[in-house]
Amino acid sequence: MGAGGNKRAREALDAAAAQSLRASLQAAREALPIWAARAQLVEEVRCCTALVLVGETGSGKTTQLPQFLLAAGLAQGGMIGVTQPRRVAATSVARRVAQEMGVALGAEVGYTIRFDDVSSGATRIKYLTDGMLLREALADPLLRRYKVIVLDEAHERTMQTDILFGLIKGVQARRKGDLRLVVMSATLDAAKFVTYFAGSKAAYLQGRQFPVQVLYTAAPEESYLDAALATVMQVHAEEAPGDVLVFLTGQDEIESLARLINARAAVASKEAGGIALQVVPIYAALPPEQQARVFEPAPDGARKVVLATNIAETSITIPGVRYVVDPGLIKARSYNARLGSDSLQVVPTSQAQARQRSGRAGREAPGKAFRLYTEAAFQALPPTTEPEIRRSPLAGMALQLLALGVTDLPAFDFMDKPPMGALMRALEQLLALGALDADGRLTQPLGRRMARLPVDPAFAKVLLAGAETCCAEEALTVVAMVSTDPVFTNPGQQRDAAAAARRRFVSPLGDHLTLLNVFQAYLLVGKAGRGRWCAEHHVSARALRKAADIRAQLAGHLTALELQAGASGAPGAPGDATDRLRRALVAGLFSHAAVALPDGTFKVLASGQAVALHPSSVLCGKRPACIVFDELLRTTRDYARQVTAIDAAWLPELAPIFFARHAQGG
Ligand code: CDP
Ligand code: MG
């Protein structure tokens, strides 16, 4: 046989492999609880204006329903858009469905998340974050590209999904039967959705759930990470085969527990009669190739330990899990409208979330859930989680609704109304940012432009202020760098080397300028050398690539707004370059301005709240008199994160409305 024969033989083998993969995927589809109900579901979507579909996580709602609707011709002349609260879910589900349909990702099946669009003119099923669908509505208020919209994970009640409820209700009325809506939820209280969407119907999928034994600790644990480690080890040593799913609150925690488990894996394997332990992390910032690993079975009978954020609670289903380890915590946003402080905090889950997490152990066989807290603590948890709209700052949401033509925000058809105080705060902030006029109307051009930029209103203002003062290039870099994943990676053992490598980037003016220095240095390295350069400097290559990408997209938005992306070094640019950038930061972040107190902490001017510099800040240990910062992080105490030193005299000049009010009000 010649070379041609070899090639043909190889092609035949590849084709056979693809065929058998498709066949096994098809078999898996047909085994899902939703499969038997497909004809009936298609009929219900066809007949009623809105269908509320309730089914246990893993029953096949997200991956299958859109395929059924497409096959039934319900998307004729348009697309099926499926929203997801989480980016990881949107991308991983799109990948799975493309595989099931045997098409390339980005062709018939695609996804769109902020700063990453993998869809095309051929796309018929598009998974997108709820935030992205809202953005699309700005350009296309009637969402004409869609014939069906599926609002998935409705039980999560994210702010964007909540707004979409009201918005799409209005769009449906205007498109007169030409837009179908499906609301999907993993929890049983469909009544609220059915009442809200007049003329809708509920359908329930019969789940397949094995019993899960729930175990509590006898006394409160001192360290839940230690307790999680001990529990994983105990399961591995004593329990029947089956994978373990551990719920943690974020990437740092996942990385530390992974290190702790890996350090003990060899011993643990010996104790378990030679069965290996394989640790697999899953969180939003993980590269997609690595995210895909959680769906693969562990090799050679090893036991897989999945360390996940809340993403594994309902958005994705990981096969093989029989043991759940749940410390009962989640990183959640909380907003204090009175203080105007927004913080990410680690807080206890609700009872509903605890049940949902435990349920993950019983999908394929009877399982066990280890709750790392006492039964009394469970009884004391709130029954359900508050909708996000009731515990978040609302400026971004308010700006978007105003740009969508909703002028009377308190009268908007919210499923649950946001707290009036928080809504007032948001409008005040938009007024102070110059996005609203005194009559509460969006300003032209500033307010309209801010609404177009896919970042928080404060950062939109930073960009626009930068563009106005000839430092758009720097402002773009800074906003891109704070929007990407953490740039400074956890150095693990090489703490000193990492600190030394980073020192050369440090700006005495703070974290934003330090990030700017990192990015500028990165750009000077040739493309081929960047990976190595990042490793040497202990910065995340992925985060920097992503920052470059975000930056390019934001620059595109500025160009679309016909704003020049001039650099501060440009001839004729007035004043000191770093001053101009810091002033642009103040123009957006003034509500997070704080002055130094004698004890080394800072007082936030807007709220009077005391904050400390976050240990990660380059200003930590320095004593700037006045600062602005991005984020208030509440852990054991309140920290200001991403900080820049500023001149206090700039505040009344750059945010006159805000500081006039605060001067009067005290
Ligand atoms: O939406 P719902 O929770 O009802 O289920 P789904 O996400 O459609 O998942 C159905 C099945 O597809 C599950 O059994 C998953 O294990 C599988 N799946 C997968 O293997 N890989 C993915 N990326 C997504 C789903
Ligand atoms: Mg789903």
SSE layout:
Layout: H1 3-30, H2 38-47, E1 50-54, H3 61-71, E2 79-84, H4 87-101, E3 109-113, E4 116-118, E5 125-129, H5 130-139, E6 146-151, H6 159-175, E7 180-185, H7 191-196, E8 200-204, E9 212-215, H8 224-238, E10 243-247, H9 251-271, E11 277-282, H10 288-292, E12 303-308, H11 311-314, E13 321-326, E14 329-336, E15 341-348, H12 351-359, E16 367-371, H13 375-379, H14 395-403, H15 420-433, H16 446-452, H17 457-468, H18 472-483, H19 495-503, H20 511-524, H21 530-536, H22 541-560, H23 577-589, E17 593-596, E18 602-604, E19 610-613, E20 626-634, E21 638-645, H24 650-654, H25 656-665
Parallel strand pairs: 1-7, 1-8, 2-5, 2-6, 3-5, 6-7, 9-16, 10-12, 10-13, 11-12, 13-16, 15-20, 19-21
Antiparallel strand pairs: 3-4, 14-15, 17-18, 17-20, 18-19, 20-21
The protein binds cytidine-5'-diphosphate and magnesium ion.
What does this molecule look like?
The strands form three sheets. This protein has an eight-stranded mixed sheet, with helices on both faces. It is globular. It has 666 residues and is α/β, with parallel strands linked by helices. The chain binds cytidine-5'-diphosphate (CDP) and magnesium ion. Cytidine-5'-diphosphate binds next to helix 3 and helix 4.
